[in-house]
Amino acid sequence: MQMANQAASGSTSHKNIPFCSLREDEWAQVPRTIPDLWLGVGVWVPLGALLLYLIRFAPQPLVLGSWAPILLSYSFFIGVIVLLGGAGRHAAWIGLAAAIWFDALLDPTGTEQQVLYAAMGYFGLLAIAGLIGQLRFAALLTTWHRQAQGSVQVPSNALKPLGYSQLIPTWMWGLTSAIVVWPLLKAGWKFFTVADMDFAAVDAELYYELGVGLGVMALVQLVGLFKWFESRSVPLMALEIPVVPETGPLGFIGVGNGLPASQVQPAQCTCAQDEANNQAEDFKHPGWFRVSDQCAVHGIRAVNELSAGQLLEIAQEPWVYGANVEALPCAGTGRMVISGLYGWGAKPVRLGIRSFFSGGLQTGAHLLPGTAREPLRRATRSIRWVDPRGNALAPEALDAASERVIDRINLAPVGLRGHAVRVAGQRVRFEAADARIPAERDAARS
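Below the sequence we write its predicted structure tokens.
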């Protein structure tokens, strides 16, 4: 069965990819693996303890010797930070490589050799366990690909975030570039000024720093290459999935306190002209504007002056609640279509394709897929709300002694168990059915 993407085609090139719609029980079949937190702590803490033992407590301590200028350079420390934060589920392989390097550097005997062999075995088993989890996930995805119910036409631009350069976080590219460019610039300056164009007269430390920077960049490229191979191990497809944070391999990101550009009406809405949106094109979530508190359509006063019926019409819109959106429950029947899920560590993209097979409603544009990570407990996972800049949203403080609650509107007619609580001078708050926001004085109640 062929299906057409509902987005306007125009002159944009499209790519035809298989489409598979999953039920909630199918989505929950993704097998559990070692949680990302355990995998990270289980590598970096033992690796740090191993290094401390070899330097301070081993009968045959690790003497840095000629390695001292390299291991004590700022490039090395920045490189460690890059690998700590960016290796993800590949950290165990780095731990294994470090243990092998220590063994080659020391040529140990006795206790040190036994400790290093134990470390190699530990990191090796951890790496294999992580690899098995990845392979099981990839096998399930391949099965879903074979069970595709049809195909869809997807704009090529929508798949650009799945390219090689996007597999590594931007901050990793920035830091690794800095620890290469900075010593290179300093060495160049010394070469043309103080050293009188004599390479031998340039400080050796600059060469060490440059060498470390190039080594770290090579490791980052190696991590990117691993991710690229993983991403190519599973055929590209469009998956229609249930938006249920408590199950499955994905968490979800909610863009709150903002509006998509398509909903901004210049004739009445002044959100786009607000100072907070001066550089909206550089937001982490481009195509979104922060909601202005003074806007005649979306501002605090405008929302608080709506009738109860008018508020019910927009009660499920996250922008209504501003920074208080975290309390808003997620509709259990929402669905979205994603592409680029290849296993753990993948960062899929959301596609603008309507539902064809499940009959479920597509969730609003404010919800996006997160990175595929295994939490400690899937049942406790919730939507992570951020503003268009990518900053976490924190609820506004409520002073029950001084703030006036305007009214409480029952949201049952729109399928939400709770009330919308309007407070003078603040954004609407969602009050769950089993909770109550205290106030000294209520103007009205529904």
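The longest strand covers residues 14-21.
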